[in-house]
Design a protein that fits this description.
- This protein has about 300 residues and is α/β, with parallel strands linked by helices.
- The chain contains eight helices and 14 strands.
- The chain has two domains: about 5-145, Rossmann fold (3-Layer(aba) Sandwich), CATH 3.40.50; about 155-295, Rossmann fold, CATH 3.40.50.
- Helix 1 (about 20-30) crosses helix 2 (about 45-65), helix 3 (about 90-100) runs parallel beside helix 4 (about 120-130) and helix 7 (about 245-255) packs across helix 8.
- The radius of gyration is 21 Å and the shape is globular.
Length: about 300
Amino acid sequence: MYEKILVPLDGSELAEVALPYAEELAGKLGSEVTLLHVCESSEEQYHHMHQLYLQKMVGVTKRGAKKYLAKPDAKTITVKSAVLPGHPAEQIVDFAEKQRIDLIVIATHGWSGIRRWVLGSVADKVVRATKQPVALIRAKGAHHHTFAEATLNKTLLPLDGSKESEAVIPYAEELASGLEGEVVLLHVVPPPSPVYAVVPGETAQIPYTQAQVELLKVDAGSYLEKVTNSLKDKHIKVRSEVRVGNTAHEIIKLADEVHADLVAMSTHGWSGISRWALGSTADKVLNGGNTPLLLVRSPGVTTK
């Protein structure tokens, strides 16, 4: 599930904050890492310089991955590099599909020429277009050395009870098993809020009662208990919480409270739409959160 990892780099330290996460996966899970740089037409004259840069980063990544080996020679660390011409987002998506990449690890802010990889640019376009899972690493205001000890020991896993949201569970399972980490399950119940009922001549608001919310909490607790038991059967350390409120807000809040290293989410569980769109819960967590975000496309969700 994490056999082949792709890390797009643009030559900046901000983009390099993705590397320590790939290094940990390579060292602990034996993942093969490919570092990719895409040269736009204005940069083609610097093709050789980009190759030299990636060669340097291959060495850096190998050394970083070896720190995670139980024994220095326990596993072979495989790190490759590629320089391609074209549009960054298109080439990243195309390369990932052709090479059957299992995970794209990309910084959400990094210099790319005179542009940043911001929501609406390279990282966002990759998230929208790729079929592969994407780990988005926040690089805003960060320096590479501050991520030297990046870990993925604690994963926050929000679920809403749907099969779509459960698409991410196997990815969290493998991380927790291979990295001997912990999974924190979360189910968010909507707060008491008005619903609308049409009656002759008017629309009346009928609020959910607190009793109804309590019943939803009980159902959510029962659901999470089943998932918890399934994970425990696989010898995974796990705990769960049920909260009431806005889904994205509660995800962000709990991630900060438990010091999660990663929030792992399906991209379809709450959005009710057929693509990763602005305005979805996943997008709100990406925009408002402080934690790296793993997004896994649910089965049946198509790209546009």
